[in-house]
Amino acid sequence: MEGNNVSRNRRESGRDKNSSDVSFAVPPPSGWLDRYNKYLDRYPLRTKMITSFCVSAFGSALGSYLSASANEDRAKIRSKRNNGQLCKTSSEETMLAKINWVDVLSYAIEGGLISAPICHYWFEWLSVNGPSSNTASVLVDQLVVQPPLCAFMFICLDVLRASIRATIYQFREARVVSKSVMNALKVVPTSWRFWPFAVYFTFKYLKKKHYTVALNLCSVAWTVYLSRGAGDGGGGSEH
Prior knowledge:
By secondary structure, the chain is mainly α. The chain has 9 helices and no strands.
């Protein structure tokens, strides 16, 4: 009996321990900060790029929302002064509709893929090769480097905006999705005459580390086939 009681107590204590572990599975904010610092130490560039991507997107979304809200408030004031009527489309506009999503994506891409790597390597270089004085380092950064980087940022943003708008136009007006599906339906049966054998012999005779290289070499022949317009797959004759 005593042995059964002991085993029962152990099981109950084990369940209590497991339940306590589950209840504290989510770390406190300080735990998240410690984990973020570890990622900064282990993957500095990748962590900064992801951080800049998210922060830039959030800042752009918040800025466009506040700007749209301010414009809406000014429109309300003008409408009250004029005839006391408010346009329904302005008052019924949702929060998501007030956000300029093209700008959000443009700022996110520019911040994560362009500004973050540049700033990462620039500050690494400045900390090693720059002036020993913090004041002098700030002056070098703000007077020499940041002005051309700011101009470059606006150039990238304009290019990204134009590219995103063109892409959206292509998807909406040029029937990109339907054309791509039709091309894939034509090309996939032909691909089964080539790729299964290429993948099979790659797996059979090569080491795992050579898989990607070998299949990339095989893709040269496949790309040539598509570029000649077979099935309108890559460089098809239909424009």
